[in-house]
Amino acid sequence: MHKYIPTTKKDKEEMLKEIGCESVDRLFDDIPEDVKFKGDLNIGNSLSELEIRKHMGNLSSKNKTINDLTCFLGAGAYDHYIPSVVDHVISRSEFYTAYTPYQAEISQGTLQTIFEFQSLICNLTGMDVANASVYDGATAIAEGAITAVLSTRKNEIVISKTVHPEYRKVLKTYAKAQDLDVIEVDDDNGTTDIDKLKESVSDNTAAVIVQHPNFFGLLEDVEEIEKITHSAKKAKFMVSVDPISLGILKSPGEYGADIVVGEGQSLGNNLNFGGPYLGFMATTKKLMRKLPGRIVGETKDKDGNRAFVLTLQAREQHIRREKATSNICSNQALNALAATVYLTALGKKGIREVAVNSAKNAHYAFDKITESGKYKPLFNKPFFKEFPITSDVPSDKLNSELLENNILGGYKLGKDYPQYSNSTLYCVTEKRTKEEIDKLSEVLEGIK
Which of 147, 138, 180 is nearest to 326 (CA)? Predict the structure, then answer.
């Protein structure tokens, strides 16, 4: 992998000669003339390494990143500390340039990292088996719903409106193509309306989906929701979780979840302007053969040495198309490796420390912002690291003023929840200092 590869005129001539082609244009002879682009692309002249570095630097400087701003924005992507060992490992060329293991017998290193990722996700969620992996938290929910449908042979999905709005949109897109019915359940003061949930669950329900902590950062009554779900024959209880929260909250396996999904970005992956991320999915053993993607297993080779194989491959490229559970054709192996290194480096105590410090910082920020009474809590319920605040000042104005003070403000809830206009969702992780939180509060107090 090189940042700059110079290609001279002589290099081009030698490459064309090697492949027996007289010109670059001849490489495109198969394209009909009437659709072929005529003229030159407007990309400017070639640049030297020094010139291109300066040009790209000028372009990138137009963006503001979390290196320039103090981040209080969450809503599905989180600014957690990433130990330097994560980048050190994933930058190794054998990992950085590797794609998905089609020839498993020669991909032992890749297979082992995926196996370790699966094992860590199982430990974290308290579930029996995990795959590796799906694209992001949104597709994880959609694929989890299809897993439930395949298992129950029912076509109705019940999902709380406290689940991430974008995740619900992706689910609806998948559901439309699969002729599935998606029933959304309203919130009651920030958490799933239990009475409406009871009314929505029926004998045709394949899965009930909630997020815990939910999109507002609040803790759902997952044990009560589990009872309601399993009161319907064969219905599966699916929970979307913040993996960091599992450092202090009960694991989904402890409260009876059948399918656990989530966004793994917070596990050692940068914000990356929105991607790539990775979705994780774990289930009970009963649902193992309905999982999309791949499952790597441990075995021994002919000499008795520890080895790894693709144990289950329920995708359309590996088995009869009509028997496939999914068309997930890529796994996020490099992102999953980052999560594996992160979880290994921190261990049980480290994950708990991140979760505890995030919660402490968030509650300090909540108290600080609301102490004067100018800003009020939107809900009065337990939360983890995110909380919504309401005021008479529009969210857009708040965020604009904060940005002028080099602070990346919260998420405008009115965008997805019109009933909560002028409400902003703030996120506080273990990275935020007392001074940064105090400055946030100070700037907010000064906004008229």
Answer: 147
